[in-house]
Amino acid sequence: MSTTPFIHDDWLLQSKSAQTLYHDYAAKMPVYDFHSHLNPQEISSNRKFRNIADLALSGDHYKWRALRWLGIDEQLITGDASDKDKFMAWARSVPEMLGNPLYHWTHLELKRYFGIDDLLSAETAESIWERCNEQLQGDELTTQGILKRLNVDVVCTTDDPVDSLEHHIQIKEDRSLATVVAPTFRPDRVLNIRDEGFATYVAKLGEVSGMDIRYYGEFMNAVTSRINYFHKHGCRLSDQAFGELPLAHSTEHEAAYIFARAFKGEEINALEEQKFQSYTLLKLGRLYHERGWSMQLHIGAIRNNNSRMFSKLGRDSGFDSILDFNMARSLNSLLNDLDASGQLPQTIVYTLNPTQYEMIATTIGNFQGAGVKGKVQMGSGWWFHDQKDGMLQQLKALSSIGLISPFVGMLTDSRSFLSFTRHEYFRRILCNLFGTWIEEGELPRDYAFVGKTIENICYNNADAYFGIK
């Protein structure tokens, strides 16, 4: 049996060129995590985790899905079983995840956070449980300790427009934390006019804005007020999520009429929702452009598909999947409408459907602009695709059809503080790809030259693009 640990210095680096690019260039770069779902309250309070199950399993629907696939009882996943019982169920299950990125991520997390080389299994579970929990009693693996250990320079959370941002304010006042923690404006509830409780949400929006909202114009004034508030507190990004990107040209009169009906509680049909969303998204894009923000579009998830489990567990519980649809016309239309008036913000387009990578790569090439490298970006492999094959597919489509050199790189898109190791995972895959190109004669064997592009993708491009610090 080999004595080399599974996660070793040259893990996933299959050539000398890949190893040189990773160790000499990628590994030293700080982490710039511009899209996450971390809870800012947990950062401001410097939360200490109860145990390894609390840190590794709580809220991680990637792991929940895998456990369900293996027939594990829900009580041991999201139910009222003890933390230890949940961890033991996870440990017994990991050996059956060969070929899934969770097998990689789990052991990379154990190595980087806890210095543990043992493979997780039923046989090693008790020892790993005890060793991890012992380390979690100290101060090095609190939320802020993790940010320091993983060299996280910037992390952006995802925040509703009505959020007070009180925890971001507290974090900024804490001079002991070197990491910049910035909010992201996520107006899904502003746009999803057919959602139950839309009128209640509008009332809340008016309350936090100090405005009485009755009409669409007042509604957008309140949204603008919240954008200004977020900007004041360090926000430089927005993020919108859609199943299908809406395409239904509308006028302000139509949008106002649809808003008025929804505000009264009247039923809005799908076409009316698309008209409202299309018009309002254009207004939001112009507001972002005016403030120098970047606009993120996450497109292509069909959510909450298991009605039985949705009624039991609610949203974000691991019952979402890839939506198949066409969006070339809608994406080009959105970008063109904003570009035509000179108000196209920096934009990142993520798709959950990898069959759209080439289409997106050709589309964003239509709307680049002077003064910004990669003004419109194709986002990294997202959600089901932030694994080796998904990352490679995205990287190859971007490099062969567009340009990879201005790419702003990887993000965690996660609720777990363990997920920062995904930046290392991405960097190793990136360096192995470039290393293969060098070995096959497609790139010059000039490591300083190629290494500069690696450093840029890992950190420098994002730092220049978002302007958060």
Please summarize what this structure is.
The protein has 469 residues and is an alpha/beta fold.
Structural class determined from secondary elements = alpha/beta
Enumerate the spans where pLDDT stays under 50 for 5 or more consecutive residues: none
What is the chain-wise order of helices and strands?
HEHHHHHHHEHEHHHEHHEEHEHEHEHHH
Beginning-to-end CA distance, first to last residue: 49 Å
Global geometry:
globular
Q: What proportion strand?
A: 5-15%
- Give me the Rg, rounded: 23 Å
CATH class of the largest domain, please?
A: Alpha Beta
What this model shows, in words?
The protein is α/β, with parallel strands linked by helices and 469 residues long. The chain has three domains: 1-47 and 152-181 and 412-469, Alpha-Beta Barrel (TIM Barrel); 49-141, uronate isomerase, domain 2, chain A (Orthogonal Bundle), CATH 1.10.2020; 184-407, Metal-dependent hydrolases (TIM Barrel, Alpha-Beta Barrel). It has helices at 16-26, 40-44, 52-56, 61-69, 83-93, 101-114, 125-136, 143-149, 166-173, 188-191, 198-209, 216-232, 252-263, 270-291, 307-313, 328-340, 357-364, 388-401, 421-439, 447-466, and strands at residues 31-33, 152-156, 180-182, 237-242, 294-299, 301-302, 321-322, 346-351, 376-378. Helix 11 (198-209) crosses helix 12, helix 13 packs across helix 14 (270-291) and helix 17 packs parallel to helix 18. The N and C termini lie far apart (49 Å). The relative contact order is 0.14.
